[in-house]
Amino acid sequence: MKRILLVGKMNGVVKDLNAFLVERFYVQICSENTSVVVGMLDIANPDIVIISLVGALDIEPILFNKLKTDHPDLPVLTIGTESERNKFLKFYEGDQFENLIRPIENSDVLAAIVKRLGLVEGEYERITNEAPSGKKRILVVDDNAATLRSIKGMLDTDYEVVMANSGIKAMTAIGKKRPDLILLDYEMPVCDGKQTLEMIRADGDLQDIPVIFLTGVSDRAHIEAVLDLKPSGYLLKPPIREKIIEAIEKAIRES
């Protein structure tokens, strides 16, 4: 089994990623303290290092320099926004470091790990097909990262939650693995909820996926416009956990 050293603050991002990876790899979690990481590199002898850049101000550039100088052949994946990555920009000039832009699905992190480790076909299929959760798969689409994290936290216990921050990324996620239900933000820039729903319904293989709209506008005209699209339901923001789960279960039963 391949070994991963997962570095970062013990927050929701790291906990969620660890829960996903431990069923496929041997994962050792480590704080972002440079001396601790350096020690763990010798103990864990990982095949790849993953660094969560959430709270990047607390991560010392010396950690990146140590990885570059002392372990030049060890692949390193970081997970963070563009601004979080910028603190360490010079280290991404070579091939050792690669940044994955968050929010990102665990399946996309897995694909990046598989690629960086150069796994052969049999190993790739074993890892990607292992550990099905048995839970219903919910795709949450919203351009607001805080909303995505909040809803994911509400649903993680009961469902397999996938996130997308735009309509286009939602279509990509659907193409990779069909969700059982979609929670779709109605007000999004460029490709809004209405356009995204139209793309879903234009595909004969996808048109029966139940879609529940999320909207932050509660005036009557706006709600009527939402209902005219005949979604499986709609919820006002900020969402409440009990109401989301009730709406999801009702939509899935009726689909």
Q: Quick gist of this model?
A:
With 255 residues, the chain is of the alpha/beta class. It has eleven helices and ten strands. It is elongated, with a radius of gyration of 20 Å.
Task: Break the fold down into its secondary structure elements and pairings.
Elements: E1 3-7, H1 12-21, E2 26-30, H2 34-44, E3 48-52, H3 61-70, E4 76-79, H4 82-86, E5 97-100, H5 106-117, H6 121-129, E6 137-141, H7 145-155, E7 160-164, H8 167-176, E8 181-185, H9 193-202, E9 211-215, H10 220-227, E10 233-236, H11 241-254
Parallel strand pairs: 1-2, 1-3, 3-4, 4-5, 6-7, 6-8, 8-9, 9-10
Helix pairs in contact: 2-3, 8-9
Explain how this protein is built.
The chain is an alpha/beta fold and 255 residues long. The protein has two domains: 3-129, Rossmann fold (3-Layer(aba) Sandwich), CATH 3.40.50.2300; 137-254, Response regulator (Rossmann fold, 3-Layer(aba) Sandwich). Helices cover 43% and strands 18% of the residues. The chain is built from eleven helices and ten strands. It has a five-stranded parallel β-sheet, with helices on both faces. A five-stranded parallel β-sheet has the order 7-6-8-9-10, sandwiched between helices. Strand 9 (211-215), helix 10 (220-227) and strand 10 (233-236) form a beta-alpha-beta unit. It is elongated, with a radius of gyration of 20 Å. It starts with a strand and ends with a helix.
